[in-house]
Amino acid sequence: MNDRQHMQIFEEARPRLLGLAYRILGSRADAEDAVQDTFLKWQEVDRTTIETPAAWLTTACTRRCLDLLKAAHRKRIDYVGAWLPEPIHTASDDNAEEKLALTSSLTTAFLLMLERLTPKERAAYLLHEIFGQPYEEVAETLDMQETAARKLVSRAKTNIGLEKARHQTPRERQDELLSAFHQAIHGGNVASLSALLSADVKLTADGGGKVATVLGVLSGKETVLAFIIDRLTEYWSHYVWEIGDINGGRGIVLRDEAKNEIAATVAFGYDGDGNVNDIFIMRNPDKLTHFGEAALH
């Protein structure tokens, strides 16, 4: 294997490694750090010892992500307010079933449910269920017996409703919601929006202590609607609204033209009936820096 082939192998694996790292870490910046660290290690490795480059790269990246995840959890102890995964822009293709399966594992609701798992449970589940690795390779990546890897995946699937979190609501329904949300903010008409919200809908906002936002999670349709009408109507009136694909679903991008920056993104979670059961507002400027760059796969 010459230097050019060595580099080509890594570049072909990069999108997959980024997608895996983002799902484990919930942060694009941290995911890029993990992939860069993997690249540096790839440059130094004795090539004669590698039988399957793709497996080697996946193992190295996963293990680096697990190290970074420990550090990230320590930082979150002092995090101000609610923590949400960093939003990413995703291109959509309704005709590609494989792509839909991948983007459904990028939703904010799905990533938050992964937060309930231990780091190794999360890695094992993603490697096997999302990226299609056989249990034998998962075990090797996580340096454990195959039976232990099987138990990790089984426990992850049992402990939380991952299949429910990956429910895909038709785009027409999502666009209907975006229209109703806009009418509520700019026209004061909440009837259409109210009809699309579940009774136990929750609103979570992440400001990271850097911008003003609600600190706790708001619960219940009346409470959430009151916040939207009483607060967001005033706060968001001067922002430019754009509709885009955020973490595999339709969402809102709010731009502050005066500052030439993204002020917020809004993503949604849906229940099995297609009603909104979660509203996720990202206001933390550090997590909006990379939004709009090429999508992670």
Report what the structure shows:
This is RNA polymerase sigma factor SigJ. The chain is an alpha+beta fold and 297 residues long. Helices cover 52% and strands 15% of the residues. The chain contains 12 helices and 6 strands. Strands 2-1-6-5-4-3 form a 6-stranded mixed β-sheet. Strand 3 and strand 4 form a beta hairpin. The radius of gyration is 20 Å and the shape is elongated. It starts with a helix and ends in a 15-residue tail after the last strand. The relative contact order is 0.14.
Cα(first) to Cα(last) distance is 27 Å
The fraction of residues assigned to DSSP E strands is 5-15%
Which structural class should the secondary elements be placed in? Answer: alpha+beta
- Summed up, the helix count is 12
User: What is the averaged pLDDT score?
Assistant: 89
Q: What is the alpha-carbon Rg in Å?
A: 20 Å
Strands, count? 6
Secondary-structure element series: HHHHHHHHHHHEEHEEEE
Domain RNA polymerase sigma-70 region: 10-74
Subunit structure: Interacts transiently with the RNA polymerase catalytic core formed by RpoA, RpoB, RpoC and RpoZ (2 alpha, 1 beta, 1 beta' and 1 omega subunit) to form the RNA polymerase holoenzyme that can initiate transcription.
Pfam family, one: Sigma70_r2
GO molecular function, one term: sigma factor activity
